[in-house]
């Protein structure tokens, strides 16, 4: 039996969009573009040196968008890149970049940690399991699009 999940689908999309909007609002409050915030967040989360490929992999945005953010942060003296081996590069925060990251991305990570720590372990596990399942199922269905 094929059920109509219009209300649930709309609510899911609304919540996803509102979550994105909340992160966008945070970036604006900090005076950053979304892509610069993503770069700082990823470096804070992954630690330094942060391989450039990890930033591109975890960002969820195009490589071109990340490269533009990196160029802006580098021009502002917040980061620098170093070759690690061959074509691979690592991203480092400058002292000013570390201060910026602490005032911005680190605060977002702290908020996320506070939220998860206020939930039960079971709630966190269920949230993550269902979110991952939805993503995997969605990607699987995308494979069958024509």
Characterize the structure shown:
The protein is mainly alpha-helical and 146 residues long. The chain is built from seven helices and three strands; from the N terminus they run H-H-E-H-H-E-E-H-H-H. The protein is globular. Helix 2 (34-46) crosses helix 4. Strands 1-3-2 form a three-stranded antiparallel β-sheet.
Secondary-structure blueprint of this entry?
Blueprint: H1 6-29, H2 34-46, E1 50-51, H3 52-59, H4 63-75, E2 79-85, E3 88-93, H5 95-103, H6 105-118, H7 121-142
Antiparallel strand pairs: 1-3, 2-3
* SS class: mainly alpha
The H/E string reads HHEHHEEHHH
Low-confidence stretches: none
Helical fraction: over 70%
Mean pLDDT across every amino acid position: 94
Q: If you compute it from the alpha carbons, what radius of gyration comes out, rounded to the nearest whole angstrom?
A: 18 Å
**Sheet with the most strands, sense and barrel status:** 3 strands, antiparallel
**Neighbour order of strands in the largest sheet:** 1-3-2
Q: Which descriptor suits the 3D outline?
A: globular
Q: How big a fraction of the residues is strand?
A: 5-15%
Number of strands: 3
Measured between the Cα atoms of the first and last residue, the distance is 24 Å
Number of helical regions: 7
